[in-house]
Amino acid sequence: MTTAHNVYVPEGSFGVLDAGEIPVETADWSNGLAVPMAHGVLVVTGIHTGEIRATATPLTGPPPGPADDVWEEIVEVSVHAPKGRLQIESLERGPAEGLASLSPVGPGWYRLRVHARGRNILPDKVSAEPVEDYLLLAWPAPHSDADIMQTSARIDHALAHTQNMPKPQPPAPARNAEQEAIRRRLLQG
Known about the structure:
The protein is globular. It is mainly beta. It is 11% helix and 36% strand.
């Protein structure tokens, strides 16, 4: 059985991160809820700062049947976990205690379904008590495009303004051995 735990949100988002890394320059902000990056995902909240309730459920395959209708918004994205340590994290306080890992089979690609409700209760405000709920389900699956399963005015607004959102940058190319040796010498002074 999975249970909800509070997660502190600074500046309107929390992460589903692989070992705490946040490659924000690769973020695709186009759907307004789940922001996939080269690895990991940011989840956009309604509140600016405060507590939300989150539940993390790892699965071995896609969830059976349709999504529960108690959720106002549902988005699925692919997430890469090269280190195999996907977990819900506060972007200020680190991993949320008590929540399951979302990469149960280790490194690789996962499908992440983000369910949300309450994002319109206190938009861009501060909330010491949780007014928003999130259910995050993840299972091993090959990479595929994002899927908006349950939309809202917030998501529709994000889709309408996609051209104004920051565009993801390709990840930096890997350094060869010679480039890495030069970098290390320069860092050592």
